[in-house]
Amino acid sequence: MPALDDLDLETLDFGSVEPVEFARIVRGTPNRQITELMSGEQRRRVLDEVFGRMHTLFKPDAAAGKDALIRWRITAGDGGEDDVYETHIGGGTCTVTPERTDREPQLSLTMAAPEFLRLVSGNASGPTLFFTRKLKVKGDIRLAGGLTYYFDIPKP
């Protein structure tokens, strides 16, 4: 495993990085560097990889009986276009749509890319991001509060 300082985030194959290693990389990378990465060409690839793995980290037993659509808006911050993904939890599965649909979500979450990466890697908590106004929540606040229980989020 290379030292964090030796990693070139622009060329790193995020598809080959295990969740615990991803959490370690995010934890050890300065916010400025994450912001630069997520403002560049790798942004969509990193987001696609994170959302593409959600179903593998999903805990169906924890979400038993839930049927919810969550819309994630990852803001560009540089005047570019925001990225929107939707996750549907229901029937013991988690499916991801890599775009906004016409469906009405029970919950919408909006945050910048660095905060999103810290949240999904276990390096930040949703309530802390919310109370520091780095995460905007619209809709079912109880669903937002329980969302982390439905996924096996790495412990960095």
TrEMBL record:
Coiled coil: none annotated. Residues 69-145 form the SCP2 domain. Pfam families: SCP2 (PF02036). Signal peptide: none annotated. InterPro entries: SCP2_sterol-bd_dom, SCP2_sterol-bd_dom_sf. It comes from Actinacidiphila paucisporea. This is SCP-2 sterol transfer family protein. It comes from the Bacteria.
